[in-house]
Each structure stands twice: as structure tokens, then as C-alpha cells.
Amino acid sequence: MKEAISLPLEDKGVEARLVDQVMKECDRAGVDRGVGLKVLNALVAEGKRVQGIPLEQDTETPISMIEKAMKLHKEGKKLIRMDVGEPDFRPPGAVLEACSEALFSFKTHYTLPKGIPELVSAIRNYLQRKRSFEAKESELLVTPSGRFAVYAAFASVLREGESAIIIEPNWPAYKQILNYVSVKPITVPTKLDESWDVNLDDVKNAIRSNTKAMVLSYPCNPTGKVVDPSFFRELLGVANDNGLTVISDEIYNEYSYKPCPTVLAGGAESFVVTSSFSKTWAMTGFRIGYAVSSAELVSRMTKIVSLVVTCVPEFIQYGAIKALESDRESEENSKTMKERIELVDRELSSIDSLSYTKPDGGMYFFPELTGRVLEAKEFGSRLLNEKGVTVTSGTAFGDYPHNFRISLGQPQEVLVEGVRKIGELLD
Amino acid sequence: MKEAISLPLEDKGVEARLVDQVMKECDRAGVDRGVGLKVLNALVAEGKRVQGIPLEQDTETPISMIEKAMKLHKEGKKLIRMDVGEPDFRPPGAVLEACSEALFSFKTHYTLPKGIPELVSAIRNYLQRKRSFEAKESELLVTPSGRFAVYAAFASVLREGESAIIIEPNWPAYKQILNYVSVKPITVPTKLDESWDVNLDDVKNAIRSNTKAMVLSYPCNPTGKVVDPSFFRELLGVANDNGLTVISDEIYNEYSYKPCPTVLAGGAESFVVTSSFSKTWAMTGFRIGYAVSSAELVSRMTKIVSLVVTCVPEFIQYGAIKALESDRESEENSKTMKERIELVDRELSSIDSLSYTKPDGGMYFFPELTGRVLEAKEFGSRLLNEKGVTVTSGTAFGDYPHNFRISLGQPQEVLVEGVRKIGELLD
Questions:
Q1: Is there a contact between B287 and A144 if contact means CB atoms under 8 Å apart?
Q2: For chain A, how far is it from start to end, CA to CA, in angstroms?
Q3: Are the beta carbons of B39 and A35 separated by less than 8 Å?
């Protein structure tokens, strides 16, 4: 019937009103709101299925791009990999040595789910020294990757049928993991021609009665945007006013070239910080991260670690202690990333058919194909097939079909060659 | 009202009838059964909450016991640890070397979520060589622990509101993870005085219209029971007849001292095998395991790995390849475990106030306090406080308040001392 009279199949306004109505009915009848939301959630999902509305689609993620590229690589194709968000730096030597030494000292056993006390204590000292943040050990948790920290945060803070605010473009995993835990992502888009600035009213208007969290991450993956700490405070204020927990993914904070906001500086009434050893110390393949939150949320997140994976490998935890002391390496990595931003900025600026903002930090550019005629997906596909260069299509990060992400996790000469090939294809 | 007229608060028969009714109504109305079960599940849970029926309780698990013991250890108390299911053996030297070598060769990057091709291929060869099972690579998945393989299997095979059969006593994680993914565990109890035999009619009668999986694990943790392969086939037949997927946790298969059943020998129409490097090669602290299933289920499980943790640490995967070639070590470990079973059997047999069956395999004894006067929880607590010996209370493994689990993950002299102290306290 909707189709016959040209009504859109999905009406987000109706969905939001239903949420309000169900929560009111729950309050009136003395039923737990969570039960109402859970039932509504099941019925809305079924309604969509029956009407043929696709569920949140599987977008092309950086990881699926890796698989495609590895296949081509196997077939003998020489590739310039500017897709995956992985620094090419080496992990600090002290980390490798501590990890190996722990291995040969038979640190090969189960540990406490929250991490070995020595690492928890080292994270506490690191946060004190680098962020002037005083954490109790009960407020810290070691996780098997920053990604897992995000998953555990979402699963601990949010319940099925609730919703969370995400500012887009952003890391695809936020939306994917929210969908996985049956929480509705509500996206607040930002635009290149507004310098990726966040409109505070857009954020306020996006909040529904069942919204319980706001996900923030600066420097932004993929735009490199870093909002001012004062504006960040305003965002936290909106979260506080609406009883939202701020989940701040601070994985790129060491790669920021203007003052980087952090919830650890205060201002959020309820928060979880997720972070990782992956970017700062180039330890992606170690799968280790951490979370900072209230003792109560950390305890809930610890139960999830315990339930799903028991703990992080013991000898890796010993290695991670040394990373937290490797300031020289993290500073060098940060400096190199800054140089790459400058370099790629110079190279990209000569390509007329691309628009972009110069990143404030992070390790990515997110240019747009000017005129928005060519779709980035098709462009990326031709770039791979004709020039052997991999980038990630903008659709992975939100509704950005004409943008693509360039990752700076490659040596300068590779980046220059890659960007020049982008220019060649566009010419 | 129920209380006033002495009716039990919970009536499992009513719950089972409701499930049938809802599924029938769904079929009649052309609504997806999953939606009906999801809604029923939310309402039943709320009904229980309102009536004050506790949700599946947090039982004392081996891990929570570790925390208690570590605290006492920190306070300087000398302990005999017979609680945690962790072999005291050392990982094979070749594993340590390969892992360390991979680390220093910078195998420190993201890998494919399903595992590095070299390890997947090594698992395929291992299954061919040791289990005469021919797997395609698409049917294999590397997981960050056997526990994670179980979690991914449950989350892939079962949907919210469905149910799964578990034979008890068994590893507490099965029930805990099922509860976590909102699936109802239906337990089929076995008894010491029936030699922990499984009654096939009990299994058949436990199956409801929403039951979708049967969880099996032999040798059994905690009883050490290994059922005959012919009886195992009968269990698989029941699963097939009812359209259940068999989830067979084969983590202890190398510690079996009579022919050990495996679904890899055939007989199950739909199955997932979960396994791990933890017990066979004493690699608990490496957090690595694997799963074998249909390509379709492996693909669903791979998505969960990718979503929650990306992949297993790369250099650990290189170490694991060497484990699969370490037959000498796994045979030695298996032989030592057999000797410990004989030894502890001799020691325990002289304690009058304990009844038990001698394990067919695995690494545990599960004795019962004869007469069932003393609760194992109280006994375990006194054993820890008065004798410095840790065991795990039977309530962790099901409704076994008078049993406790002794783990054999300690050298012979420690086991002898521990069991003698148990005898002393009982005297």
C-alpha cells in the first residue's frame, strides 16, 4: 500500500514516536521500560523485514578490502595499500623483548580477566603522567583490543532496543557493533563543506527518549577532524543534560596536531574511554587495548571479557607494560604521521578534482570527488584494477558515496606514488 | 497469590507450553517464529523479575575461585591449587621459539579474521592426520580461545528465545554464555550413582519446540566421563531427528583413556566442533582455539570474530602451527594425566566419606561428600581456610551441592598432599 501511494517504506519519525509511546505505556503500567523497548524492537525489525526494508547493510569495511587486496597480492599483483588503518611503524624493541622474555619465563597462563596487576598499575601511571588523570585500579580494564573495549562498552552501557548517537563519518565498527547488540545507531552527519564541524542542534535533535549513549572519537577516523576542547565540553554538556553515557574512543589521541579533547579532562557525568596499543605503538597484531570508566561499568565490562575470552594472553600483557614507557617511539610515530599529513596535503592539493580538509590529526585523509558525479566505490574499484592502489570507499563510514579514505600507514615514497596514481586516474 | 496457595513461583511446564503456543500462533499468523520467541522471552523474563524469581545465578566459577586464591596468595598464604583447569605442563619449546621468532620478524599485524592461511592449513592437516577428517579451509576458523569458539558457535547457531540442551554436570561457561546470548539452557542431569550415564529418554523429553542445539563435551569436565562412541551416535541421532545442531566441545579429546567419541567421525547432520590449544599443549595463556563446521556456520562465526576482536594476535598464530606438529609433547602430557588419574584414584579410594567414579579421561575428579550432609561450598571454604587447598564447588557445574571438582593440573606430589589434606579435614 505504501508503495502504491508513493510513501517511503521507512519513517524514522514514526519509529521515534513509537519509542516514546511505548516508554510512556510502560511507565503507566509499571512495566520495566527495557521490556517494552525489547518487544518494540522485535516488532519493528519484523515489520521492516515484511516490508522488504533492508536491515543495516554490510558495507565494505576496511577488513573486507584487506581480503580483496590479499587475494590480488597472492595472484602476483603489486599493490599500494592505502586502505587499512595500520601503521607501518615497528613496535618498540623493548616491547618485543619483554614479550619474548615473558614467553620464555612461562608467562603462558590464565590471568585475571581485568588484566595482570602490573599492567593495570602501569596504565594507571601512564594516565597520570600523560593525561593528568587519577584512576583507581577498579576503574581500569585490559581488553583484547580497542575494538573489544568498544564492544564491551556498548554491551555494558546499552540494552536491546535502546539507541546511541554517532557522529558521521566515523569508524564503521561503531554502527556494526551497535547493530550486533540490537541497539539503534542514530547518526548525526557532518559535511566537508562545513569543515566536518558538528552542529550542536543536530545532536540535540537526534536524541530520543530511548537514547542512552553518545559515541565520540577525535581525531576522527576518517576525516582527521579534531574539535576544540571547548566545543567537546559542549557536547559533553548535551550528554549530561540527557543522561547519556559518553563513550569516547581515544585510540588516535597521540596523533593529534592541535589540542586534543578527552573525557579524562572532565566534564562527562558518565563515560567510558576506550583505547589501544595499536596505533600509538604500532601494535595492531598484539590485539590489546584498555578501557577507563566507573568501577561499576568496568566491573560489567570485565564480566564480558571473562565470559567471552577469559583474558588477554599473559606474555602480551607483559609486553604492553613496556609500551606504556616507550615515549620516544610514540613521539617519533606521531612526528612521522604529522610529516605524512603535510606531504600528502601537498600532493593532493594539486589534484583539481578532489576536495578535502587538511586533517588536524589521525592517520587518514577523506577527500571527496568534486562534482559528485563519480561514485567512490566505482573509483576505488578502478583504482585497484587499473593502478593497483587500494583506498576505502566513503560508504563504509556513513552516507558518503563520493568520498574515499586514504590511510597514511605507508612510507612517504609509497604515499607519494599512491596519490600520484590517484591523480593520474582522475585526469 | 502463588505464594499464598503454596504454588511454586516457576513452572517449567507452563513455560514449555507457552513456547509451543507462541510458535503455533506465529505459524498461523504468518509471523516469523523468531519474533514470537523474542517477544515471549522478554515477557517471561519480566514475569520472573516481577515475581522475584532469581535469574540464572552467578555461580562460583573456576575463575572467581582464582581471584579469591590469588588474594590469599598475595597475603602470603601457601596454597595447593586444585581448582583451576589449567595444566602445569610447559608449552612445547618449538611453540615458544616460533612465537618469539614471528615476533622479532614483525608478524605483528592484523590478519584475516579467520586466521592466517598457514595455520588454517595446518589445522586441516592435523584433523586429517589425527582424526581422519577431511576439512575444507572454508570449514575451519581460528578463534581467540576455545571459549570464544563456544561463544561464536552459540551466537551463530542460536537466536534469542530459543533453547539448547546441556547435559550436566558440565563446564559452567556453556550455561553462562547461553544466558548471555538470551538462549535458554535446558539441562539434562546425570548422577554419580548411575555412573554419570546419560538417559536417552531424558534427553528426548527435554527437547522443546524451540530447541535448536545440543551441547556435548567428552571427556566431561568435571566428571571425566567418556560415553561410548555407539551411545554418542545415538545422541547424534536424537539431535538429527529433532533438527538440532550438535555443538561438540572436544577440548579434552587428547586426554581420553578409552575410545573418545567425536562428531568428526560422522553422524551429525549439523555440527560445530570447538577446540583449543590450551589443554593438549598447555597453552592456556596464548588464548587460541579453533572451530570446525559447515562453511555457512564458519562464515557466520568469522563475522563475530571480525566484529568483536578482528583476529588472533599474528605471532601467536605462528606459534600455534608448531603446536599442531608437537605430537611428542601432547602424548607426554596425555600420559602424565593418565598417571595422575591412577594416583589420585589410589589416594581418594582410602577416604571413606567420599564417593566418586574413576574418570575415563579429562583432568578432573568430581567426588561427592557421602551422605550429602555437608555442602561442598562450605567444605571448600573450610578446606581453603584450614588446609590451604582450593577445589571448585559442585554448584558451579549444575545442581551438585555435595560434589566438588579436583583439578589434576599439578605435579604428583602436590596432588598427593592436597588429597591427603582433604582426607584430614573429612576425618
A1: yes
A2: 47
A3: no
Cβ pair B42:A63 closer than 8 A: no
Pick the residue from chain A with its C-alpha nearest to B316.
A286
Give the residue from B105, B120, B94 showing the smallest Cα distance to B315: B105
Question: Which of B42, B111, B310 has its CB closest to that of A38?
Answer: B42
Nearest CA in chain B to A181: B181
The answer to whether the Cβ–Cβ distance between A66 and B313 falls below 8 Å is no
The ipTM estimated for the assembled molecules is: 0.93
Question: Per-residue pLDDT for chain B (427 aa), expressed as one digit of tens each?
Answer: 888 888 888 888 888 899 999 999 999 998 888 889 889 988 888 888 888 776 554 455 555 666 677 777 778 888 999 998 899 999 999 999 999 999 999 999 999 999 999 999 999 999 999 999 999 999 999 999 999 999 999 999 999 999 999 999 999 999 999 999 999 999 999 999 999 999 999 999 999 999 999 999 999 999 999 999 999 999 999 999 999 999 999 999 999 999 999 999 999 999 999 999 999 999 999 999 999 999 999 999 999 999 999 999 999 999 999 999 999 999 999 999 999 999 999 999 999 999 999 999 999 999 999 887 789 999 999 999 899 999 999 999 999 999 999 999 999 999 999 999 999 999 9
Q: Find the closest chain A residue to B305 by CA distance.
A: A148
List the single best residue of B307, B311, B326, B333 to mutate versus A (max A Cβ within 10 A).
Answer: B307
Nearest to A107 among B45, B285, B314 (CB): B285
B chain contacts of residue A110, beta-carbon cutoff 8 Å = 63, 66, 84, 86, 284-285
User: Who among A67, A111, A285 is closest to B314 (CB)?
Assistant: A285
SS (H, E, C) chain B: CCCCCCCCCCCHHHHHHHHHHHHHHHHHHCCCHHHHHHHHHHHHHHHHHHHCCCCCCCCCCHHHHHHHHHHHHHCCCCCEECCCCCCCCCCCHHHHHHHHHHHHCCCCCCCCCCCCHHHHHHHHHHHHHHHCCCCCHHHEEEECCHHHHHHHHHHHHCCCCCEEEEEECCCHHHHHHHHHCCCEEEEEECCHHHCCCCCHHHHHHHCCCCEEEEEECCCCCCCCCCCCHHHHHHHHHHHHHCCCEEEEECCCHHHECCCCCCHHHCCCCCEEEEEECCCCCCCHHHCCEEEEECHHHHHHHHHHHHHHCCCCCHHHHHHHHHHCCCHHHHHHHHHHHHHHHHHHHHHHHCCCCEECCCCCECCEECCEEHHHCCCHHHHHHHHHHHHCEECEEHHHHCCCCCEEEEECCCCHHHHHHHHHHHHHHHC
pTM of the shown model: 0.94
Q: With contacts defined as CB-CB under 8 Å, which chain B residues touch A284?
A: 108-110
Mutation target to probe the B interface, by most B beta carbons within 10 A, among A63, A108, A304 is A108
Residues of B in contact with A312 (CB under 8 A): 287
